[in-house]
Amino acid sequence: MTVQLQVEMSWWGMNGLALEGESEDALETRFQRIADSGFDGINAFVPAPKEADRWRELLHKHGLGFSVNAYPASLEEMAAFLERALRFPEIAYINAQVMRPFLEGEEALQLLEGITKLSLEAGIPVFVETHRGTITQDLLRTIDYARKLPRLPLTIDFSHYVVAGELHTISEEAERRLQSLLPHAHSIHTRVSNGEQVQVDIGEKGGHPMLPHFARWWEEAMRQRRSNGAPFGGRDTFPVVIELGPPPYAITRDEAGSRSLEISDRWSQSLYLQQLVRRLWTKSAT
């Protein structure tokens, strides 16, 4: 099966953006902006029942794919979320932040294995995100999960490990461990950390010294997915979410005030990352 790149815009990443030309129908405007800017889809949430028809209409109108985020702390919560997701067939996959940061050992493995089983039974891929404050918050524990659960599908967001480990530079030891997770990558969230802040301004032309490290990891994850064949659950797409968050993820000039003056243009940097991701996907084929 040939795997196709799917570049999605994070709906959360649209929060707080003052988009030029935004009409009274902000929902329509943002769908239009995302589609016109070359994105293939949106990563958001399961629409509320009263909003489902409108979301469905806009997704089809603009030809956008759709994925959602889940925050389960148990198998029961994951099962309930999957039941809701099945009522909205446009959902291609679920990105899960498993909210059990202090669970470890056999209990953690059972929870992760159970989520994978529920996903297969429901027919909706569920990818577990590498994220602080969740079951994968620790790089070494996550490596152990991946070693013991060879089919564990991950969403890779290494900004969390770079900031948690204060990785101002990437040692050979760190590189080896980060690389070991990339064969499990079924999705990527793009954000760059400098080891002190989780999300930094990468510069108008991507001149930040940490960006080459992240670009290298993203490209290798793409190469691994191409060589490993079809993504988890039989899907033929490899989703990459451009996910630059609003404050407090975004650094602001008024940290002690309203935190509304971001130091960078989040939308323009999202567009830059979209183009970078497409270039890396082309390179990963060679």
Features:
alpha/beta, TIM Barrel, single chain
Describe the structure in your own words.
There is one protein chain. With 286 residues, the chain is α/β, with parallel strands linked by helices. It has one domain: Divalent-metal-dependent TIM barrel enzymes (TIM Barrel), CATH 3.20.20. The chain is 41% helix and 14% strand. It contains nine helices and eight strands. An eight-stranded parallel barrel has the order 1-2-3-4-5-6-7-8.
In short:
The protein is an alpha/beta fold.
Topology (SSEs and partners):
Elements: E1 4-10, H1 26-36, E2 41-44, H2 49-62, E3 65-70, H3 75-85, E4 94-96, H4 105-122, E5 126-129, H5 139-148, E6 154-156, H6 159-164, H7 172-181, E7 185-190, H8 211-228, E8 237-242, H9 266-283
Parallel strand pairs: 1-2, 1-8, 2-3, 3-4, 4-5, 5-6, 6-7, 7-8
Helix pairs in contact: 3-4, 5-7, 8-9
| SS field, number of helical segments | 9
Mean pLDDT: 95
Low-confidence stretches: none
- Fourth-tier CATH superfamily name: Divalent-metal-dependent TIM barrel enzymes
Shape: globular
Assign a percent range to the helix content. Answer: 40-55%
What structural category characterises the helix and strand content? Answer: alpha/beta
Radius of gyration: 18 Å
Name of the CATH class: Alpha Beta
Proper CATH architecture = Alpha-Beta Barrel
Classify the fold: give the CATH topology. TIM Barrel
What is the CA–CA distance across the termini? Answer: 17 Å
Instruction: Give the biggest sheet.
Output: 8 strands, parallel, barrel
Number-wise, the strands total 8
- In spatial order, strands of the major sheet run 1-2-3-4-5-6-7-8
Strand/helix succession: EHEHEHEHEHEHHEHEH
Instruction: Return the domain count.
Output: 1
**Beta-strand proportion:** 5-15%
